[in-house]
Design goal:
This protein is mainly beta and about 220 residues long. The chain has helices spanning about 65-70, 190, and strands at about 20-25, 25-40, 45-55, 75-85, 90-95, 100-105, 110-115, 115-125, 135-140, 145-150, 155-160, 165, 170-175, 180-185, 200-205, 210. The protein has one domain (about 20-220): Mitochondrial biogenesis AIM24 (Double-stranded beta-helix), CATH 3.60.160.10. The N and C termini lie far apart (about 40 Å).
Amino acid sequence: MNSDLFDSENMAVPATAPGMTLQNAKSIKYAVNGECYARQGAMVAYRGELQFEKQGQGVGKFLKRAVTGEGLALMAVRGQGEVWFAHEAANCFIVDLAPGDGLSINGRNVLCFDPSLSYEVGVVKGAGMAGGGLFNSVFTGQGRLGIVCEGSPIVIPVAPQAPVFVDTDAVVGWSSGLRTTLHRSQSFGSMLRGGSGEAVQLRLDGEGFVIVRPSELRPEKASGN
């Protein structure tokens, strides 16, 4: 079959530099020259001399899901070659972090990241929300982070004196310097009468941005599995 029949964005041409790039809207290509990290099971193809090693969740920063509710099951990819990551045909995008930046993100949205980034589990203040749990994965340092999202993400700036309220099931992540609290938009009486279905939101104060996906979390995925 003639490969010219396919769109150029779907053709896997050799990488010109190490690191991650968007292959297309649904996948990320990572040119590995040393190592990188990705969620377990995210590899859909690779070429070159690469090894895949599961990272234990009970050691160091890789905390157990049973404890945190948001443990991130990771694998290390080591060697030299190219690997393609994807997850359930979700949309992919790349975030560039600089020194001093920090991104708090739901573990279910992490696809892959540079080894130069530090990763730990942080407590979400005012938590107790469905889907988000009490903990998020906080990334800091300088490097690139590959993220998956159902649909094209909405990035909303947050400014002082102008808080942003987001549905707790739709939030993907936010600048780690923002303050988070739960906000109830309905009275208890209204909730008893059925309400609008949007009773509790995550309120973000400070300066930064929040990433929201254009759909609410489906009940069967609310546990982050």
